[in-house]
Write a structure and sequence with these properties.
The complex is a heterodimer of chains A (309) and B (341). With 309 residues, chain A is mainly alpha-helical. Chain A has one domain. Helix content of chain A is 67%, strand content 2%. Chain B has 341 residues and is an alpha/beta fold. Chain B folds into 2 domains: 216 residues, Rossmann fold, CATH 3.40.50.300; 64 residues, 2-Layer Sandwich (Alpha-Beta Plaits), CATH 3.30.70. Chain B has 12 helices and 13 strands. In chain B, β1 and β2 form a beta hairpin. In chain B, α2 crosses α3 and α3 packs across α4. The longest helix of chain B is centred in the C-terminal third of the chain and has 18 residues. The chains are: A mainly alpha (309), B alpha/beta (341). Chains A and B meet through α1, α3 and α4 of A and α2 of B.
């Protein structure tokens, strides 16, 4: 076990005199048998991938999301089909499951970091990788990709189910162009436009994954699972609730609150907004969420790198 | 080699670690001793870059912890027992650590074998006992085959077999030329494992010596005498220039004399002695003396009587064997029935 020391001789620091070498019968040199190289983000990402796939909370939250999104889509599509009511855009039934499913993704986003604070694992993590911003970057990359892919897959499935049931119907007697801009009638039957397909799959996947990333940032700032989940529930639900109770003099504020609330943002991505005229595609809301997430992630980086663990 | 230079940590106006300067040298087990709340864990967290020092710095082989490129290959640390996500299996816990430092996968199996957890490698660590959790923590510390090992209170809550295992492990690691730095609040534990000793109290450095030197300097020796004629003996001793101290159980302690000399003196004056024994105060007592003023949270109550160090001697002879046990049992039964019904 007497490998040549791979560590550079320690320089006396502080300008002070070198401490007298402790005399020992053992050679005071031991080098790890493992070669040392500079670490990269790649290792941190691999480590975080192992972490996220080896805890039950990941499997649970994502399974719950899949069950909610697809299950509720199947439930709501039956009455919509029976009514033969083409006021709902063909792909929009996916929205109702996603309104609940997004909460599961938010929970996972929070848990990715707060479970480490709760168990003390964060100390082990930051001892293994003292570059803290790299740890957060790796967590963000792994979580964002996982939640984006899972949500997009789930929403693509609901979009396909909705399409197979609701497309190709002949609308009867509705003034579709006035009140229901999201409903597309092509060759006399119900259909969906390209941007609707994009919004109902990648669009909502991106929105929910961004919400999850926001949850990760909030979890990093609050370091507490229940606190961070509650805060994120507030982010998702409060704008709509506040809008209801705003006095009538603040109509513009109310409209903005409703427009940029998470439920309406998702609805807009399905071209099925709660308020407003014209064909809304949800892109402004997506950009707004990306900006908010970027700001809070910045705050999370600042907090994580300066705070004591 | 770990070097601390003027390391200080303040929380508000409370100083947890106060200007610590010392060096942890390779090839020996260095004990880091202090009462609860002395700042041991805070110091160790600062060494690992987890807490930011208010002043001063820590260098590991001349570098700050954050500058180490693959830190697990330099330092392995066991922090407080469960810095582990309980929902992950032992194997996966070690695997994610290994991946973050480019440590080959076979090392995971090796360290699991070293700490004797191979059989439960695929079990979630949530169900682990304290001892198994401690072993998993140690496996994580050994993963990178590091030059420096730090253990924070490793024997806390372990059974005798586990304590024995950790002692031998630390000695073995030091014998390979590694730097081993271990904290404890138990002097007796340190006396068995550490060669070098760093004592802190209230965040301040109280001692930085070899263990042998510490024992030599701090252990008080005295002679204990028991006699049925205490008044006469006291007069005789005082007349001969000794300063006998009477303890609570009626024996004398004489610090400045040796047993032979005192025995001859008693014989000259025809005094009956029931006991004449040279005593050496325990290391635990020496440690408590050293840190007495610095203990942060005193137990609210009376100070122990001066004669308590001599083992069972402090116990009143007549009632000693039965009375405490009876009280104990009675109390337990009373409270038990009181709560149950």
């Amino acid at each position: 076990m007497t490998a040549p020391a791979q560590f550079p001789a320690p320089a006396p620091f502080g300008g002070g005199p070198q401490q007298p070498q402790y005399t020992s019968q053992f050679a005071p040199s031991f080098g790890s048998q493992l070669p040392v190289e500079p670490t990269t983000l790649g290792q941190a990402v691999r480590s975080e991938w192992t972490k996220i796939r080896t805890v039950r909370s990941t499997v649970w939250t994502l399974s719950v999301m899949l069950v909610l999104v697809i299950g509720i889509n199947l439930l709501v599509i039956v009455p919509i089909n029976d009514d033969n009511d083409p006021t709902v855009p063909v792909l929009a039934p996916g929205l109702f499951g996603l309104l609940l499913g997004q909460l599961a993704v938010i929970t996972l986003g929070v848990l990715v970091i707060t479970s480490e604070y709760g168990t003390g694992m964060i100390r082990t993590t930051l001892t293994a990788c003292p570059k803290r911003s790299r740890v957060l970057t790796a967590k963000a990359i792994v979580f964002f990709l996982l939640s984006f892919v899972t949500t997009t897959v789930a929403c693509t499935m609901t979009a396909l189910i909705s399409w197979s049931v609701l497309s190709g119907k002949t609308p009867g007697g509705y003034d579709l162009h006035g009140d229901h801009p999201g409903v597309v009638i092509k060759d006399g039957v119900t259909s969906a436009s390209g941007t609707e397909w994009l919004g109902a799959t990648i669009g909502v996947g991106l929105y929910v994954a961004l919400l999850g990333l926001l949850a990760l940032a909030v979890g990093t700032l609050l370091r507490h699972s229940a606190g961070a989940v509650s805060a994120m529930l507030g982010v998702v639900l409060l704008p709509l609730l506040v809008a209801i109770f705003l006095p009538s003099g603040l109509d513009t504020a109310r409209e903005k609150l409703v427009k940029y609330s998470a439920p309406n943002s998702l609805a807009s991505l399905y071209h099925f907004p709660m308020i407003g005229d014209g064909d809304q595609n949800g892109v402004p809301q997506l950009i707004a969420l990306a900006v908010v997430t970027a700001v809070l992630l910045g705050a999370a980086y600042a907090a994580l790198t300066t705070r004591d663990v | 080699m770990i070097e601390l230079q003027g390391l200080t940590k303040r929380y508000g106006d409370k100083t947890a670690v106060d200007n610590l300067t010392f060096t942890v040298r390779p090839g020996v087990v260095t004990g880091f001793l202090g009462p609860n709340g002395a700042g041991k864990s805070t110091t160790m967290r600062m060494m690992l870059g987890l807490d930011n020092p208010t002043a001063g710095n820590v260098r590991i082989d001349g570098k700050h912890y954050a500058q180490l490129s693959e830190p697990l290959k330099y330092i392995g640390a066991l922090l407080d027992a469960k810095a582990i996500h309980g929902g992950r299996t032992a194997y996966n816990h070690l695997l994610c650590l290994a991946q973050s430092n480019r440590i080959p996968r076979h090392r995971v199996d090796e360290v699991l074998d070293t700490v004797g957890l191979t059989a439960v490698a695929k079990k979630r660590s949530k169900g682990f006992s304290l001892g198994m959790g401690q072993r998993l923590g140690i496996a994580g510390a050994l993963l990178g085959d590091p030059e420096i090992l730090m253990f924070d209170e490793p024997v806390n809550g372990l059974d005798p077999e586990g304590i024995h295992w950790i002692r031998n492990l630390m000695k073995g690691l030091a014998a390979q030329g590694r730097t081993v730095f271990v904290s404890s609040h138990l002097m007796s534990e340190m006396a068995l494992t550490a060669e070098h000793l760093i004592v802190i109290g209230r965040g301040r450095l109280m001692a930085d010596t070899s263990m042998a030197e510490f024992i030599e300097k701090n252990s008080r020796s005295y002679v204990r005498i028991r006699t049925p004629q205490p008044e006469r003996l006291k007069d005789v001793l005082t007349a001969a220039g000794f300063t006998p101290v009477t303890t609570s159980d009626g024996t004398f302690e004489i610090q400045d004399g040796d047993a032979a000399q005192l025995g001859e003196l008693a014989a000259q004056h025809q005094l009956v002695l029931h006991e004449l024994s040279p005593q050496r105060a325990s290391l635990e007592e020496a440690f408590m003396q050293l840190t007495a003023e610095s203990v942060e949270y005193h137990a609210g109550g009376v100070a122990p009587p001066p004669g308590i160090d001599g083992g069972a001697a402090g116990m009143p002879q007549a009632a000693g064997q039965q009375a405490p046990q009876q009280q104990w049992g009675a109390q337990w039964r009373d409270s038990g029935t009181g709560k149950g019904k």
